[in-house]
Amino acid sequence: MSKVFLQRGSKEEIEDGSGFMPKFDQNGLIPCIATSAKTGDVLMFAFMNEEALQKTIETGEAHYWSRSRGELWHKGASSGFVQKVTDMRVDCDQDCLWISVEVTGDEAACHKGYQSCFYRSVPVGQKPDKALNLNMNKTEKVFDPKDIYKD
Amino acid sequence: MSKVFLQRGSKEEIEDGSGFMPKFDQNGLIPCIATSAKTGDVLMFAFMNEEALQKTIETGEAHYWSRSRGELWHKGASSGFVQKVTDMRVDCDQDCLWISVEVTGDEAACHKGYQSCFYRSVPVGQKPDKALNLNMNKTEKVFDPKDIYKD
Q1: From the CB of residue B102, how many other CB atoms can be counted at a distance below 10 Å?
Q2: What does the pLDDT look like over B1-43, one tens digit per residue?
Q3: How far from the centroid of its chain's Cα atoms is residue A100's Cα?
Q4: Are B69 and B52 in contact (CB under 8 A)?
Q5: Are strands B30-36 and A135-136 parallel, antiparallel or unpaired?
Q6: Which domains does chain B have, with CATH numbers?
């Protein structure tokens, strides 16, 4: 364990203390919520491993662990949509991170071309008797994935 | 699988379609981010299983799966801080949910008495040479946990 992170302590130390004791799960990952510093919207949800978290802290740019590619993922390295971290928070039991980010350019965070990965709504508040239909939010793509991801 | 949720389809169906195909992980859980409909702040991060998600959709009140207690968790049932869901969204690959909630009373979501579980900041943007110190955000407890959780 890096000396930047402390080993997990007592429940009191974890919840009330000022020591940073992030909990990495059995796969060595901690979930991270990224919201837009500009709009407050949730842009994306991803995971960091210890290296990604350390690089994020050191550089101020969001790094994740890509579970699909199995590699460190400097967000924006291929798309150009780098995420500058303006605030990082940890939750009460220190097993989840929340970062506020400023995104280079058009604020896009989703590989589908939208600003946010959460571009569809689920209808709530009724007892559904059949499969639910998602609703597209009133949002336009800010880029065409074909133009950005060449391979 | 409930008929409310569809079985996972092709990548195109999952990312571009209007069918709701939530991905539950190997433990039968899907992560859920809850933000305040009033302030936009991330209040908490938790998991839903199929039953919790279905109850949330049917009742419009957030239900989670408590991993520590191993039971369905109607948020606010003991504390009174019920979360009324004003919007639910699903992300591009349908393996994460984001709900906006209105909280009964003092907006508290955290068992520690704070409005948000994310009451501490992690310093970012410097190369740390020693263990990081978390900073308390400028936030007051809105209740004393001892007054709410009697046992």
Answers
A1: 13
A2: 456 789 999 999 999 999 999 999 999 999 999 999 999 999 9
A3: 9
A4: no
A5: unpaired
A6: 11-141 (3.10.20.810)
Strand A71-74 and strand A63-66: pairing?
antiparallel
Residue of A16, A23, A26, A42 to mutate when probing chain B, most B C-beta within 10 A: A42
Residue B1 touches chain A, beta carbons under 8 Å: no
Contacts of A127 in chain B (CB under 8 A): 58
**Cβ A122–B18 below 8 Å, yes or no?**
no
Strand partners, A73: A64
- DSSP letters spanning B16-56: H-SB------TTS-EEEEEEETTT--EEEEEEE-HHHHHHH
pTM surpassing 0.95?
no
Instruction: Give chain A's radius of gyration (CA, Å).
Output: 17
Structure ipTM: 0.93
